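job 3f2a | input accepted
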Amino acid sequence: MDANTPCVSFIGIVDFTEQAKWVYCSESVNDLLGFEPHELIGTPSLNLVHPDEFDQVKAMHYSTITQDRAAVLAYLRMRHKDPYKGYILCAISRTVCQNVLVGSVSFASPGPKAMHNASTAQEVRIITPYARDFELRRWNDPNPMPPCPIPDRLKNTPSPAFSASALSRRSSPSPSPEAEAPPHFDPLPEQSPRTALILDRFSVNCNVLYCSNDSLISTTRVMGRSFYDFVMSKDEVTVRAWIDVIKGWGVNERGQPSDGGFGFGKFTLCVGGRDSSVRQTEPAPARNRHGSHNVSRDSGSRDYGRSHRSTHSTTQGRGRDRKGSDNRDLKVDAIFSAHSDGLMVIIRKNATR
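job 3f2a | predicted structure (353 res):
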């Protein structure tokens, strides 16, 4: 690795198949690994893994899915398109999002950034032996987002078959339990409902650039709109503060937008959407005070269609948003993370409600 390697990250999504095929790659993959997104989409992500670490990474892919894990951070080597650059030491974040794995790939280097990322992840896995120093964890920290229970249909999932070459290595020492053998498995069924949103980190409104599914919110309704349109007004100030913090974390030592660890929170999702631009221009604390220039926190999406019906002319179905079950609210758990070319928000229904 030379000193000119950009300290960036790209957002990646892979499927549940044995090959972990790329479903989505953001443009920053070119800065880190030299590939254009279209060169990777539909190809196995495991093709980029270092041969010495292939078995462990494949086993990790299987266990992450079957155990429905979230905010897992792993350190491993990935191949650069330019053979002269060889393999890049990368930090890989992974979260199960119903029927895909979403996360990011970033250049791993020691320092405060690496320590911050490791301390905010729910789990850290060291695949590359050279990355032992990255495994910094704070003792006795509570789990910020308890994992979803394993669905009944997967509790008796049989162990995957192992290749003969891998079985021959079982007697040799391995750096981790994951290194015992690479599993062979058919595509696994969907896990607990989660939706991943990719937001524009360079805009005030954090417009939605990508939505992974329709499980919690309609893809056609959310695309291109402000993320805050789907946060209930009573939680908007809090969520904006969280995202400001995440954006601040997502800057590397060179001052470039990069990965920034994980943030966890709960808020109320406005499933039908509202108009978050209906708020006074005074400082944020004034939004929650009663006054002639303030919008009632309880008005929610009822006001947006009545007062600002023309502000979002490109969005259809506004009349339906103001009535019926489409405008229900939903308490959700959320994982926030920053990356070079976007913010990632992964939401799931809060189990305590």
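job 3f2a | The domain at 9-184 is CATH 3.30.450.20 (Beta-Lactamase).
job 3f2a | closed
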